[in-house]
Amino acid sequence: MSESVCRWGFLGTAAISRKVWKAIRVSGNGRVVAVASRSAARAQEYIDQCSAEVPAAAAQEPVLAIESYQALLDRDDIDAVYIPLPTGLRAAWVIAAAKAGKHVLCEKPAAVHTDDLQAMIDACTAGGVQFMDGVMFDHSERMREIHRSLRDDSPIGTLRRINSHFSFRGDDTFQQSNIRTNAQLEPHGALGDLGWYCIRFTLWAANFAMPTHVRGQTLTALRGSDSEAEVPGEFTGEMRFADGLTASFYCSFLTANQQTATVSGDGGYVTVDDFVLPFYGAESSWRESHNVLSIDNCRWNFSEHTTRKSVVEFSSGESNAQEVNMVRRLAQAALSNTVDTFYPELTIKTQKILDACRRSDASAGKWIAP
Ligand SMILES: NC(=O)C1=CN([C@@H]2O[C@H](COP(=O)(O)OP(=O)(O)OC[C@H]3O[C@@H](n4cnc5c(N)ncnc54)[C@H](OP(=O)(O)O)[C@@H]3O)[C@@H](O)[C@H]2O)C=CC1
Ligand SMILES: O=C1CO[C@H](CO)[C@@H](O)[C@@H]1O
């Protein structure tokens, strides 16, 4: 690599990529070099908007607008690509990126099927490039500290139950025209968009153990006006683990904003009120009353016999850091040309559980081995 910063290219002009652009800007080890769109004018408009949000970057170096995803991949001045294209298009473009030798940050849900995802990851392995999905909470310092606490000398004892809920209420325009209700583009609907996080949280809390059995059910199906089939608009799932641990989750495009997750043990529980998208301006100092410790939107509840000695007092003010950490990690892999298999393996586990949820849903809620 010729530079000490990772040179990023973006495929598409997705709404989410504006956040990722900003994260790259402050990451310290990357810069956006080019944006490809199906329309050159749209790419330029997008670049102008993002540049206006970070004027210093615009003054430093111009970003190229390219009217073809493949033309961006063919460039040799790009090290890593961000792929937030709709899920139905990802397999083809991740494989093309890997063949072009680009490291890949791929949005979630990663793929339509595990088979597609395996082909995507195999292509990345063959190309010697990193594959990472776009789940940001994996990179949050706050969540990493909670994870360490749960693993080492857990203050809530032996884990018994994991519950997670991620929902927002989409209006009529959302339901009719957003990619999330289009079966060709986002076939998993709310399960892919929101349930992916619940599945990932469950894996994360279970210290990345796979459940032995999974079942799922679409509670409400939706169909976008430009789609030929329905997608899950509201979905619920359950998981069983070998050691008696169980989990449930709920995700929905019909229920008001909520992103709450709770891990319960035989000695207490911890609840995170904002496990996916940390609230901005969140409470940053911890409060203690009786046996409850509240810190950075997490509440730890202890029974009498536990102490809070192993709850790490993580620092405040990091609610915006998860996306920065994510792009910084991918850039580190690109800059050092090393591949961390942890991330693709975690994505495969998440996808296998999602696939099992869909299979269970299609067979009247039967328990399925993922
Ligand atoms: N990790 C996270 O925190 C987040 C992840 N996401 C994920 O990112 C993905 C994108 O979401 P979002 O930003 O809302 O999506 P958008 O609808 O804003 O963007 C999708 C982009 O894909 C490109 N595209 C290519 N082909 C098509 C097509 N046939 N129809 C529509 N778009 C197409 C378009 O770029 P162009 O026309 O310029 O080529 C478009 O801008 C989703 O899968 C979502 O789950 C979303 C938000 C947050
Ligand atoms: O990944 C995402 C983050 O959360 C949003 C909901 O608030 C999702 O719609 C989006 O796709």
Distinctive features:
nine-stranded mixed sheet; six-stranded parallel sheet; binds NADPH dihydro-nicotinamide-adenine-dinucleotide phosphate; 1,5-anhydro-D-fructose reductase; 370 residues; 11 helices; Rossmann fold; binds 1,5-anhydro-D-fructose; 2 domains; alpha/beta
What's the SSE blueprint?
Layout: E1 6-11, H1 17-27, E2 30-36, H2 40-53, H3 55-60, E3 64-66, H4 69-73, E4 80-83, H5 87-99, E5 103-106, H6 114-127, E6 131-133, H7 141-151, E7 159-167, H8 172-177, H9 189-205, E8 213-222, E9 231-240, E10 246-252, E11 258-265, E12 268-272, E13 287-289, E14 292-295, E15 298-302, H10 321-336, H11 342-362
Parallel strand pairs: 1-2, 1-4, 2-3, 4-5, 5-6, 7-10
Antiparallel strand pairs: 7-11, 8-9, 9-10, 11-12, 12-15, 13-14, 14-15
Helix pairs in contact: 1-10, 5-6, 6-11, 9-11
In short:
This protein folds into two domains: 149 residues, NAD(P)-binding Rossmann-like Domain (Rossmann fold, 3-Layer(aba) Sandwich); 191 residues, Dihydrodipicolinate Reductase, domain 2 (2-Layer Sandwich). It is built from eleven helices and 15 strands.
What does it look like?
This protein has 370 residues and is an alpha/beta fold. It has 2 domains: 149 residues, NAD(P)-binding Rossmann-like Domain (Rossmann fold), CATH 3.40.50.720; 191 residues, Dihydrodipicolinate Reductase, domain 2, CATH 3.30.360. The strands form 2 sheets. It has a 9-stranded mixed sheet, covered by helices on one side. It has a 6-stranded parallel sheet with strand order 3-2-1-4-5-6, with helices on both faces. A hairpin with an 8-residue loop joins strand 8 and strand 9. Helix 1 crosses helix 10, helix 5 runs parallel beside helix 6 and helix 9 packs across helix 11. The longest helix is centred in the last third of the chain and has 21 residues. The radius of gyration is 21 Å and the shape is globular. The protein binds NADPH dihydro-nicotinamide-adenine-dinucleotide phosphate (NDP) and 1,5-anhydro-D-fructose. The site of NADPH dihydro-nicotinamide-adenine-dinucleotide phosphate (NDP) has 20 residues, from helix 5. The site of NADPH dihydro-nicotinamide-adenine-dinucleotide phosphate has 20 residues, from helix 5.
